[in-house]
Write a structure and sequence with these properties.
With 473 residues, the protein is of the alpha/beta class. It contains 15 helices and 14 strands. The protein folds into two domains: 230 residues, 3-Layer(aba) Sandwich (Rossmann fold), CATH 3.40.50; 154 residues, P-loop containing nucleotide triphosphate hydrolases (Rossmann fold, 3-Layer(aba) Sandwich), CATH 3.40.50.300.
Length: 473
C-alpha cells in the first residue's frame, strides 16, 4: 500500500516537471520567433544598403607637393614621370623621407595609396648613391631583400623594380615559388642587388648556398601583418633571427627594415617585429576606414539567387565598360563553383586560389593583369597588395568573414592613380541577418568617417558581434 502511494506521488511529480519543462520550452520558442520576426522586419526595410561615393581625393588629401620636393634623384623622377606619377600620396610624403634617413619604419595606409613606392624609390636612390661612393658588389650577395606573402604580389613588386632599372643602375631578380629555373639560379650567382620573393623560398635558397645575406643592407616586409599571421609567423621569425645574426657580424653596420601594410596590426604582432627590429617607427594615413571615393552596395538575397544576380551584374558590366572586375569568394570550393557557372555561359574569366598549382596560379594572374581577360574569380589571396588601376568593380559573391578582409577586398579598386574615375563600386551579396547588420555597420562608419570595427579579429568578427539568427528566407 505504501509502495503504491509512493509510485502515485512520483508520477504526479513527473507530470508537474514535464508540464514546467514544456512551458519553458514554449516560452523560449516564442521568444526566438519574436527575435527572428524583429530581424526579418529590419531586413525587409530595404533590399539594399548603398553608400554613395564622395568626391574626395582620399590618397592625396590637400597635398600639392611633387616628388622633386622629396629630394629624389633625377633618374628616379624620370621613371615616375614615365608612368604618369607626379604627385606623391600622403603616405609617400610621410614615409619616403624616413626611409631616406635610414629609419626602421612601419608604413600603414589605406589600400591603393602607393605604399610600394614608399620603399622602392628611396632604396633605389640609396643603391645608386652607394655605387657612386665606390661600392663594389659581390657574387650571390644582394643588398636588398623584399618579402611578400604571395607569389602574385612578389611578381608585382618585381615588376616595379624592373621598371626603374631602365632608368637607374641596379639588378633585380624574383625568387618566386616554383620559379626554380636554371636561368634564375644562374642569375643570383652573379651580381644582383635586389631579390624579391616569398619568405620560405628565399630561405631555401639561402640554405642551399644560392643566396648569401652577408651584404644585405635593406629588408622589406610587404603586407607585414600577413607575414606575422599563423601561416607565416614561424618562417618570418626564422628569417628575422637569421638576419639578426648576419647584422651582428657586420661590425656595427645595421640592416634597415621597412614594413608596409594596409592595416596596423595589434600590439602582439608589432611586438614580434620589435624583438628583432630596434627603434621601429610607425607612420600611418587614413587607416581602417571605408574608402569614401567608391560606391559600396550590399544586396540582400537568398543563397540560391546569388549566381543569377552575379550573372546579371557581370553581363551589364561587360556591355557598358571596358574595365576589369574581381569576384571574391570565401573558399576555393566556392571559387570553383562560380567559375563553373561562368563556364556554362561561356563567359571568359580566370580564377585564383590557394589549391591551384603555383605555376598555373601565376599564369592565371598574368592573364588578368595583361588584360587577356577582364574577369577574375578569387579567394582572399588576391585581396592583399595586388594593384591594378583598371579594376572598377569588386563583387563579394561571399560576404567577407571580417572587417579586415572587407577593407582589403574593396581596396582592389579606387587606387591612387584612378581615384577620380567616379565609376568604382564594391558590391556585396548578403544572405544572412548578421551580414546585413554588418552592412549597416559599414554604412555607419562611412557616414561618420570612423574606423571600421572588427579589424584584426582572427575569428569571424561578424559572427562574434551578432546573435545567431535564422538565414533569410
Amino acid at each position: 500500500m505504501v509502495i503504491k502511494k509512493m509510485k502515485f506521488t512520483f508520477k504526479l511529480m513527473h507530470m508537474a516537471l514535464q508540464t514546467t519543462t514544456n512551458s519553458v520550452a514554449k516560452s523560449q520558442k516564442t521568444a526566438l520567433k519574436q527575435v527572428s520576426k524583429k530581424n526579418e522586419k529590419l531586413l525587409d526595410r530595404g533590399s539594399e544598403v548603398v553608400i554613395k561615393a564622395k568626391n574626395i581625393n582620399v590618397h592625396h588629401g590637400n597635398n600639392q607637393s611633387t616628388f622633386s620636393t622629396l629630394n629624389l634623384r633625377s633618374d628616379l623622377l624620370d621613371g615616375l614621370q614615365n608612368i604618369h606619377i607626379t604627385q606623391p600620396t600622403i603616405i609617400q610624403m610621410l614615409g619616403i623621407p624616413l626611409v631616406l634617413q635610414k629609419k626602421n619604419v612601419f608604413c600603414a595606409a589605406q589600400t591603393g595609396s602607393g605604399k610600394t613606392l614608399v620603399y622602392v624609390t628611396p632604396i633605389i636612390q640609396k643603391l645608386g648613391n652607394e655605387v657612386e661612393a665606390g661600392f663594389i658588389g659581390r657574387l650571390s650577395r644582394p643588398r636588398v631583400l623584399v618579402l611578400s606573402p604571395t607569389r602574385e604580389l612578389a611578381s608585382q613588386i618585381l615588376k616595379v623594380f624592373k621598371h626603374f632599372s631602365h632608368y637607374c643602375r641596379f639588378r633585380s631578380v624574383g625568387v618566386i615559388g616554383q620559379n626554380q629555373k636554371k636561368w634564375a639560379k644562374d642569375y643570383v650567382k652573379g651580381l644582383v642587388d635586389v631579390v624579391v620573393g616569398t619568405p620560405s623560398t628565399i630561405l631555401k635558397w639561402n640554405q642551399k648556398g644560392l643566396l648569401n645575406f652577408s651584404d644585405v643592407r635593406y629588408v622589406v616586409f610587404d603586407e607585414a601583418d600577413t607575414l606575422m599571421d599563423d601561416n607565416f609567423r614561424n618562417t618570418t621569425s626564422e628569417f628575422l633571427k637569421l638576419l639578426d645574426c648576419e647584422s651582428d657580424s657586420k661590425n656595427g653596420t645595421n640592416i634597415q627594415f621597412i614594413l608596409t601594410a594596409a592595416t596596423l596590426p595589434p600590439k602582439g604582432v608589432l611586438g614580434r617585429y620589435q624583438e628583432f627590429i630596434p627603434d621601429l617607427q610607425v607612420c600611418q594615413s587614413n587607416l581602417h576606414k571605408v574608402l569614401p571615393h567608391i560606391k559600396h552596395s550590399f544586396m540582400k538575397t537568398r543563397q540560391d539567387q546569388k549566381s543569377e544576380l552575379l550573372i546579371n551584374k557581370l553581363t551589364l558590366f561587360l556591355s557598358q565598360s571596358d574595365k576589369k572586375c574581381i569576384i571574391f569568394c570565401n573558399t576555393s570550393k566556392s571559387c570553383n563553383w562560380v567559375s563553373a557557372k561562368l563556364d556554362e555561359l561561356k563567359i571568359d574569366h580566370t580564377k585564383l586560389h590557394g589549391d591551384m598549382n603555383p605555376q598555373i596560379r601565376l599564369q592565371s594572374y598574368k592573364k588578368f593583369t595583361d588584360g587577356k581577360t577582364r574577369l577574375m574569380i578569387s579567394t582572399d589571396i588576391a585581396s592583399r597588395g595586388l594593384d591594378s588601376n583598371d579594376i572598377t568593380l569588386v563583387v563579394n559573391f561571399d560576404c567577407p568573414f571580417n572587417a579586415t578582409d572587407y577593407i582589403h577586398r574593396s581596396g582592389r579598386t579606387g587606387r591612387a592613380a584612378s581615384c577620380f574615375s567616379k565609376n568604382e563600386e564594391v558590391l556585396t551579396f548578403v544572405t544572412q541577418n548578421k551580414e546585413f547588420l554588418f552592412a549597416k555597420k559599414v554604412q555607419e562608419a562611412a557616414k561618420k568617417n570612423k574606423c571600421l570595427e572588427g579589424i584584426h579579429s582572427k575569428k569571424n568578427s561578424i559572427n562574434e558581434s551578432m546573435p545567431k539568427l535564422n538565414g533569410l528566407k
